[in-house]
Design a protein that fits this description.
single chain, alpha/beta, Rossmann fold, 7 helices, 6 strands
């Protein structure tokens, strides 16, 4: 199996994305660690990692509620609402990636993965602070890579479209549809029309890509965005 003898830690594993990743990693032979740890608590992250013999793969799949963030024009959005996803996502990804990287440096190997969505690369209205949050995460992974790849540590991002199977996207599309005076189905169809395949990604596609890039077969990938958006954004 692709991830035999690998230990993977997934932050946000209780969410639908995290659950899909945990299942795929387990099926690929990895030992998956998904203990309840506050990804914004530096001390808690370090304490938890100290209990593990090694960390081969670290994935951050946390999420926050989007009501009050998306579906609101920037001119009507408060500064706090705009900056909430920037601070939350970037802080969590930095803390978890840094903690894992420190362990991986000693091992001289490891893979750090992040997940973003298509607005990281293209302008979509009413996204609030999610657009800069995702774009910053992608650059954070590139920066970890350029500093650590020579020491055996890879860092990269998996970018997808929205994932209609998830509760988060159900919430988000409802917010956008309401703001645009349309239905969720119509809003989704509009977004899907911008992909080459005419459809969104699935959780299974994201999970299988994560397994591949985390395995030795994907060792050529680092410091990049693995674009799964079906041509919506390119790389």
């Amino acid at each position: 199996m692709q991830l035999t003898n690998k230990t993977a830690i997934i932050y946000g594993a209780n969410g639908m994305v995290g659950t899909a990743l945990a299942r795929a990693f387990t099926e690929a032979g990895a030992t998956v660690v998904a203990a309840p740890v506050d990804a914004l608590d530096e001390a808690a992250i370090d304490k938890h990692l100290a209990t593990l013999e090694r960390v081969d793969i670290s994935v951050n799949a946390i999420g926050i509620a989007q009501t009050g963030i998306q579906g609101i024009p920037l001119v009507e959005l408060s500064a706090d609402a705009y900056l909430k996803p920037v601070d939350t996502y970037l802080r969590a990804h930095f803390l978890t990636a840094r903690a894992a990287a420190r362990r991986m440096v000693a091992q001289k190997s490891g893979v750090i993965l992040a997940h973003t969505a298509n607005p990281a690369a293209i302008a979509i209205p009413l996204m609030g602070g999610m657009t800069p949050a995702w774009a910053a995460i992608e650059m954070l992974m590139r920066t970890f890579s350029v500093e650590l790849a020579a020491r055996g540590i890879r860092a990269l991002t998996l970018r997808t479209t929205g994932l209609p199977e998830t509760k988060t996207i159900d919430e988000v599309y409802a917010l956008h549809a309401k703001a645009m005076g349309t239905t969720k189905a119509e809003f989704q169809a509009m977004l899907e029309s911008h992909t080459h395949r005419g459809r969104h990604n699935t959780l299974a596609e994201l999970a299988s890509a994560a397994v591949f890039v985390a395995s030795d077969a994907g060792r050529g990938f680092t410091g990049t965005v693995l674009d799964l958006t079906g041509g919506m954004t390119g790389a």
